[in-house]
Amino acid sequence: MTNAVSAAASVRTGTGVGTGPGRMRSRARGAETAADIGIALTAADRFLDAEQAFARGLADAERDGVLWAVPLLRSYRAQMWFAAGRLPLAAKEAAAALRICDDFGMRPMSVLARAVLARIAVACDDLPAAGAYLLPARRLADRGVQSEVDELLLAEMLLAHATRRPGHALRTGDRIYRELPERCWLLGYDPAIATDLVRIAQMGERPEYAARAAQAAAALAAHNPRVPSAQAAAAHAGALRSGRPEDHRAAIDACRRAPRPLMLAAALADAARAESNEAAAATYWAEAYDIADAAGAKRIAADARDALRVIEGRRRPAARPEAGGWHAVTVSEMRVVRLVAGGMTNRQVAQQLYLSPHTVDAHLRRVFAKLGVRNRADLARACAARGSAGGSSVA
Q: Residue 275 domain-assigned?
């Protein structure tokens, strides 16, 4: 097992279960073990194994009547789906956990579910919903509920950052920053949180906090050399601090090796912001848009769409090009074209670009219409002719 697995399992906050008959304590320990294993496998980027662990834990908890464990396990499974970029599944799972807490009067157990739902809402650019999820959780925490406080603080920080309140975000997360880099439980199951912490600190002009978050990501990567997401988060956090385009390119390469598409989308967006070459920035923004749009992460998608519109406006200030031809092919479409012309199937292109097959098909249909071609063979010939004529590979 990796060190990320050990760390995630060893520092997980308690569930408040400790007294009662020996058999019940044994059942509770079983549920906690299932949660620990699922979290640890999520930390190691083994999402399918984590899903199986959570499913087994839920089955055992329901069979043994350990009701409190059900919303807890479902909330952790929602975190796993969030890390995997499956936002609809994450939202469905966390909503089910919250509903169980409400139906059975387990409101103190709802803090984690509400925090996860708030993070999803921020990613989906539904900030009012995020606030609505967090307000009851904050009231519970203020009344002494200590379960999953770090997750609650993180969600509150992300909402404050999204609403341009850097001072509030930093005050909310002050304890988290001060405990870094030694204590980094949040990064254990989702290393990408390190980059969120760096961005928040930079917006609030606290470089020492940004340094702590980057150091925590680097320490996690050093202890987990075979966990791709840990390596990617360290590279990305370092790039955010340096601001150098070459560091951002290295971070993108690292994120491509990790199975977390939203991590890649964020790295592409940050690289685009740091890039002085407008054509390169457009390419980054286009890929970030495709990945975020396919995942339902409307916040990154909206930023990318707005940036691409600005770039297009500067590129063609006088007259718009003709409706057809290569000039009409967008950067997003061109990325699909290059892979299809290289012989990939739609499904292979979708996997390569973190898109749905439906999105790939839609891109191709638009390209066929713009170029006046009827099939993939015609498209390949058109690409070859464009290349031999000295045309650029990027629209």
A: no
